[in-house]
Design brief:
The protein is an alpha+beta fold. It has one domain: 3-Layer(aba) Sandwich (Glutaredoxin), CATH 3.40.30. It is built from 5 helices and 9 strands. Strands 2-1-5-4-3-8-9 form a 7-stranded mixed sheet. Strand 6 and strand 7 form a beta hairpin. Helix 2 crosses helix 5.
Length: 230
Amino acid sequence: MPRTRRARQRAVVSACWLVTAFACSEPTEPTAPASTDAVTAPSPSHSPVAPSRSFEINEDGEILARDFELVDHRGRRFRLADEKGKVVVLFFGYAHCPDVCPTTLSSWARIEAALGALASQVTFAFVTVDPERDTSARLAKHLGIFSEDFLGLRGTTEQLDQVYDAYRIDAERVPVAEGVVGYVIDHTTRMFVIDPRGVLHRQYDYRTSPDSIAGEIGLLLEQVAESGDS
């Protein structure tokens, strides 16, 4: 069924907003409040690098999410393209993260609960920025605290670097003088929502209201179901 003119207009506006956000040299998320933790929203001096390839745009002017292939914490191949028909919520973090990542995972748990039965149509994918410490077992244990359905994704250094570059993810190891952790990762804190057609729908600051994100995801699933575009 053809998409309505209003839907097309919203798609163009959304695409323009996303292109502007990715192309800008400043970070797209608000600066995090002052904290003693090393993991914060990137400052202008730690802005993510520009993508190495141009974006692929569909006929409606929407940005298509870059496909990638990694392995989940259960040892299964994960390919983004295989998730067509479902909403994908994507975040880059690590299990030893002291603040941003547990906040995001707690938000995901609330989103999952708010969606109810619709949560079966959503994939929550957590890509590690600390593959050295984030073993499959470590990711399974950590994500399991929040939901058994969340997926932890790992890969080779080359595979992960390609995904970081595609989504403009900045990750820098920062030594810690005290404690047994050894180091923390200063990393980009954007959360991405990819719609069932593989369109990069929107990116959110990790502090965005879970109820707001759940409502947006519900609308995406409803619109796709009505249009038959999944």
